[in-house]
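To the wet lab folks,

You asked to see what we're planning to order before we commit. Fair enough. Below is the target structure as tokens, and below that is the sequence we designed to fit it. If anything looks off to you, flag it before the synthesis order goes out.
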């Protein structure tokens, strides 16, 4: 991609919690995000994938400004927005909106849908009641709901309809970047497909850019332009969806793909050889954070933290043994295709 990125993250780190006080034991902070660098280009869908607790949601909240970064910087359209005062940060990041994982919890159960949707317009200075009403009605139609839905309350809607309402709420503010946190979780397969098709339609209609946070690999594979694999707060693999799913290189990526159920029975990687559970995120250990679970780790992997480096074209991997891992991944992928 040659155009300047719409959103840029440069070595962003986030530490959560931690305490050291008089007569209190020291509690180390959680290293939720560790030196993440990403570019998000206008019109693309970049998916952020990883196990629960790997830092995906924290990174999304940090981009939005709900969580302050501990280190690094965030740029929107080339302008630095990190480190600003709250009011200035809110204005600077107004083109970024966030769709919560629990769509129902993001809506006030005591307010009608119309009042909830109009509230955002009021906060952003739309004082004319007739204009707010018309914009809400038009947006409800845009997400596939009847404008009369504005008179109803959240408990009267299904899970799929609540997702549509959550999208309508943020789209009313005319964002350019949407951070979608597990937008299809908890939905039936048919409803998932409907929501995904709606997201694609809305992207074209409103010229949107998506940061898609998910652990559902089948959804990610279908929807994404690029995929970033996250492990313990770090990006360990980044590339086009075709490359990451077809030629997974990092051992953790191969483990995720091997474990993912596929309707065709085909697997994108060989069987998982990963052992144990992720380490305590409060512990800061030297070297690769995947060392204790990696099937191809060497003692040298404990000496330094691997950086995200290009291995081919737009395919970046953070692994000291990327060449060997890539060869094994290609071999396993070819074998799986022959068995399919």
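Sequence we intend to order:
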């Amino acid at each position: 991609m040659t155009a300047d990125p719409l959103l840029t993250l440069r070595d962003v780190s986030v530490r959560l919690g931690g305490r050291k006080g008089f007569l209190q034991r020291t509690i180390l902070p959680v290293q939720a995000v560790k030196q993440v660098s990403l570019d998000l280009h206008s019109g693309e869908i970049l998916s952020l994938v990883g196990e629960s607790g790997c830092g995906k949601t924290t990174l999304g909240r940090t981009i939005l400004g709900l969580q302050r970064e501990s280190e690094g910087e965030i740029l929107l359209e080339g302008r630095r927005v990190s480190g600003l005062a709250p009011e200035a940060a809110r204005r600077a990041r107004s083109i970024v909106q966030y769709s919560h994982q629990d769509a129902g919890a993001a809506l006030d159960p005591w307010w009608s849908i119309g009042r909830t949707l109009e509230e955002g317009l009021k906060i952003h200075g739309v004082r004319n009641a007739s204009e707010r009403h018309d914009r809400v009605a038009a947006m409800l139609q845009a997400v596939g709901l009847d404008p009369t839905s504005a008179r109803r309350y959240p408990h009267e809607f299904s899970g799929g309809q609540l997702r549509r309402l959550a999208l309508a709420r943020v789209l009313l503010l005319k964002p350019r970047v949407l951070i979608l946190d597990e937008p299809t979780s908890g939905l039936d397969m048919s409803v998932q497909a409907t929501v995904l098709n709606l997201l694609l339609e809305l992207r074209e209609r409103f010229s949107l850019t998506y940061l898609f946070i998910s652990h559902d690999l089948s959804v990610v594979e279908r929807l994404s332009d690029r995929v970033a694999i996250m492990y313990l707060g770090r990006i360990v693999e980044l590339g086009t969806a075709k490359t990451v799913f077809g030629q997974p290189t990092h051992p953790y990526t191969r483990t995720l793909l091997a474990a993912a159920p596929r309707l065709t029975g085909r697997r994108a990687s060989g069987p998982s050889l990963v052992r144990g559970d992720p380490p305590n995120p409060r512990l800061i250990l030297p070297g690769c954070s995947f060392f204790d679970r990696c099937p191809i780790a060497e003692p040298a992997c404990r000496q330094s933290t691997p950086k995200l480096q290009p291995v081919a074209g737009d395919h970046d991997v953070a692994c000291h043994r990327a060449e060997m891992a890539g060869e094994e991944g290609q071999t396993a992928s070819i074998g799986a295709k022959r068995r399919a």
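Structural context that might help your review: DSSP finds ten helices and twelve strands in the chain. The longest helix spans residues 189-206.

Thanks,
Computational group
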